[in-house]
Amino acid sequence: MNEAGSGSVSSAINLAAYNSIADQWDAARSTLWGREPFYLDVFLAGMPKGAQILDAGCGSGRPMAENLLARGYSVLGIDQSAAMLAKARARFPQGQWLEAKLEQYPFADPCCGVLCWDALFHLERCFHQPILARIANCLSPGGRLMLTVGGSAHPPFTDSMFHQQFFYDSHPPQQVMAMLTALGFTLRLGEFMNPPTTGRDKGRYAIVAEKSMGRHDTIFP
Fold it and tell me: Which of 99-108, 187-196, 206-215 shows the lowest mean pLDDT across its residues?
């Protein structure tokens, strides 16, 4: 696989799947879940209203971009699914919505925050560190990243949702947090949203990290 190429194998699988289930996904993912409101509070704490936030893997714009816009932030959403973006553009015309593959997006424009929620683990893990490095480069000092990754060490796999196959891959949480530390981030929060089980659920882990300006305490509830 080559980042300079036309995109990853996983992108092709997930693009077809998300375009096929756009209506079902939009209806099912209409509100924040679990502790997501708390994660957003940590992510946005002290960030000035009107600041630019990039939603990398924005889907239909709900519920994450919707909440950011409602709180007075400027949102640029990127996603490879045209069907998802059509919903975001229709529902939230005040946002900016760009069709792009996450593994190819340059993250060239500076911003105060990047949200990459339930998106990175849809790509082969070889893409993850380069994407995180580009995110680090685009963030202003003190800017924050809110991220989900897989919750366990596990080989790549596919699973079904709304009768469509999706690709998943992830480094385990401790390895991702080590990557972020090496890229100059200070960890602000890290916790399991759902721990891995012995069955189908491989786990999901939430991270909020800050581009370092100084030392902060890490939050591990």
Answer: 206-215
- Residue 16 sits at φ, ψ, to 5 deg, of -60, -40
Cα gap 170→175, rounded to integer Å = 10
Q: How many CB atoms lie within 10 A of CB 16?
A: 14
Residue 116 sits at the vertex; the CA angle it makes with 141 and 85, to the nearest 5 degrees, is 120
Within a domain: residue 99? yes
Structure tokens at 126: 């070889």
Identify which has the larger pLDDT, 213 or 111: 111
Q: Are strands 52-56 and 111-116 parallel, antiparallel or unpaired?
A: parallel
Tell whether 1 is covered by a domain: no
10 Å CB burial of residue 47 (0-12, 13-18, 19+) is middle
| Overall number of domains in the chain | 1
pLDDT, residue 7, reads 58
d(CA 201, CA 216): 32
Q: How many beta carbons lie within 10 A of that of residue 201, not counting itself?
A: 13
Establish if 81 belongs to a structural domain. Answer: yes
Residue 80 within a domain:
yes
Q: Which domain holds residue 195?
A: 9-211
User: CATH number of the domain that 26 lies in?
Assistant: 3.40.50.150
DSSP letter at 175 equals H
Instruction: Compute CA 206 distance to the chain's CA centroid, rounded to the nearest angstrom.
Output: 10
Please give the angle made by the CA atoms of 76, 82 and 87, to the nearest 5 degrees: 70
Please tell me the distance from the alpha carbon of residue 149 to that of residue 172, in angstroms, as a whole number.
8
